[in-house]
Amino acid sequence: MSRSPSMTGVVMVGASGRMGREILQVLSREDGICLVGAIVEKGDPLSGGPAPFHPDVTCRGELTVDDLRKGLQNGMSIVGIDFTNVEGALSTSRTFSEAGVPLVVGTTGFSPAEKEELMSHASRIPLLVAPNMSLGVHLLAHLVRQAAKALPGFDAEIVEVHHQKKKDAPSGTALFLGEAVASGRGENLADRSVCSREGIVGERVPGTIGIVAVRGGDVVGDHTVHFLGMGERLELTHRASSRETFARGAVEAARWLATKKPGAYRMEDVLGIGR
Ligand code: NAD
After folding, report:
1. What is the pLDDT of residues 26-61, one digit of tens each?
2. Which of 62, 86, 108, 138 to mutate to test the pocket of ligand 1 (most atoms within 8 A of CB)?
3. The pTM is what?
4. Tens digits of per-residue pLDDT, 135-186?
């Protein structure tokens, strides 16, 4: 694809990972947005070679503020997408913040302090952090908020299932859905969540929000929010069967974010779903 100033250029950080490759593939098919940089971890076998699906872009093991600034000088809007790990994403966010380049972060697993550091960059750049980039999950969160509000006496439990290679637990999406339950009840998840139960834990404490992680096989990502009442229960489920849904969402978010002012944005803003 030829590059013109009206085009959005994407710097993909974590280009050799499961999500990175999926995003590179989506970018190879999209109009108006193209890959301009592919960053892999130092020592990655792809370093120095062509990026998957983009033979004209070389994978590199480092990303500097100067490179990003030079990218901006050619008139194209530049935006970063990060799908790495917590350490990688924090380092990426510092570099993009210093260079003044918008950034989409799909990486999950941040502690509250790490999340705070990450979000602090929103004062300098347009920043969108989303533990799940699919349309369906954001609609689910919307419905969960309504259900939590309508069913205050029901017990809420979230069960998530992911593939055997997933490193963090519970998933960022499960926590996001937990926040939806808590906000529907006018509470904070941090005060209500119970992420593990073992041994003689006693009776369920009313008002808590349980989160359970299941790991195995090649499951891309399932999330069910259970609302359990006396004599009835409601289950709201989302199942992702392909990573492409997240990759498409990340590319759409990048396209949308490229022209925004500095600030913290959410997938709901991109998708136009009410918060
Ligand atoms: P993965 O392990 O397959 O890929 C991560 C890649 O990042 C690896 O290739 C690794 O070498 C690379 N990396 C690590 N540090 C780096 C750095 N500093 N610079 C450049 N590259 C670096 O993992 P994955 O399945 O692609 O998932 C990545 C992250 O995205 C995880 O946190 C996962 O939970 C999250 N995720 C989010 C969504 C979403 O919709 N937001 C969807 C799926 C996965």
Report:
1. 999 999 999 999 999 999 999 999 999 999 999 999
2. 108
3. 0.91
4. 899 999 999 999 999 999 999 999 999 999 999 999 999 999 999 999 999 9
Q: Relative to the CA of 89, which ligand 1 atom is closest?
A: 18
User: What are the boundaries of each domain within the chain?
Assistant: 8-133+244-271, 135-240
CATH architecture for the domain at 135-240? 2-Layer Sandwich (3.30)
Asked whether 265 and 126 are in contact (CB, 8 A), the reply is yes
Which residues belong to the active site? 162, 166
Answer yes or no: is the C-beta of 131 below 6 A from any ligand 1 atom: yes
Q: CA 86 to CA 205: how far, in whole Å?
A: 32
Q: What's the rounded Cα separation, in Å, for the pair 259 and 240?
A: 29
The CATH class, in words, for 8-133+244-271 is alpha beta
